[in-house]
Design goal:
Layout: H1 5-12, H2 16-23, H3 31-44, H4 48-63
Helix pairs in contact: 1-2, 3-4
GO molecular function, one term: DNA binding
Protein name: Helix-turn-helix transcriptional regulator
Pfam families: HTH_3
Length: about 70
C-alpha cells in the first residue's frame, strides 16, 4: 500500500506507537479498531478482497482466528 506506520495511524485516528504495538504483538486492536482497519484497507484498494489479502487478512487471522 505504500503507507508508513505514521501515515496509516493518522488515517485511522490512532497514534504511531499504537500501530507499532499492534504490529509487534505487544497489544491487540479492539474490535472497533479492527473494523476501522478493514474499512480503511477496503477504501484504499480496488476491492475488499484485495485489501484483505494485502494486509488485513494477516491482522484478521492474528486477532480473529477462525
Amino acid at each position: 500500500m505504500g503507507l508508513t506506520q505514521e501515515k496509516f495511524a493518522a488515517k485511522l485516528g490512532v497514534t504511531f506507537p499504537t500501530i507499532n504495538r499492534w504490529e509487534n504483538g505487544r497489544s491487540q486492536p479492539s474490535p472497533l479498531a479492527m473494523e476501522k482497519v478493514v474499512s480503511l484497507l477496503t477504501q484504499m484498494s480496488n476491492s475488499p478482497k484485495e485489501a484483505l489479502r494485502e494486509r488485513g487478512q494477516d491482522l484478521l487471522s492474528k486477532y480473529f482466528p477462525e
